[in-house]
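User: Run a structure prediction on this.
Assistant: Running it now.
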Amino acid sequence: MAITRQDLETDRLRTSLCSTPIASALLPEHAFEQTLRDALASRPDDGALNGDVWVFGYGSLIWNPMVVHTERQRATVHGYHRGFYLYSRINRGTLDNPGLVLGLDRGGCCHGMVFRIPSHMVEQEFRLLWRREMLTGAYHPRWLRVRTTAEPDGPEQRALAFVMNREHEGYAGRLPDASVVERLRHAVGLYGPAREYLQQTLLGLATNGVDDPYLGRLWRQLQAHDAADAARSHGGLAHPAGTDTSDAPLSQPASPHETV
């Protein structure tokens, strides 16, 4: 299945999960509303934006933001980095075979995209973002300092981002590449294979001129495993696991829709 903006407007995903074993993992409605109110109450007062706000995307938001925005720019967050730190038991995996999706965790920096939400639509668009990103409370909404490519030497601005909640049961910590690749290879959830999530994120970053060595390394390892599997199925071993397949194309996956 693929999620649409209309699904977020009607809260279809939460409704559909309330009668499943996943229901106990959903963020209670009162906590959902409180985190949303807190984020809105602490929104930065940047006169240059005339009440508009930035939202920072580092994963699926890059290639499928789904929120109304009037501008998008490349941007960098310092103090956090991107990694496969969250087990996905709904969108890109199951309870029995969790996949992995990206989260922002402490340290380093992260290159991504910021989306400008017009002032009169902030509360409406944030509610949709919460239904997409805060379903289980795996993230903490934070106003982080960012620098945009439009003003790399200009003053830092604030953008809303969803950073890892290290106390969440789905927090995976820093897994070795081999463990991440194994999850990406074999897990499939409501929105398709976990590997497609990596592929779409790489494509989205590349389209916007951003190179992520970590994600690229995982992709090459995944492709090497694919080549080894294909060779074994044909009775040979043309590309042993670990072979550099950096020239393998990032073909476009079938479904462009995603939530974290």
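Strands lie at 53-57, 71-88, 99-117, 139-148, 157-164, 188-189, 192-193.
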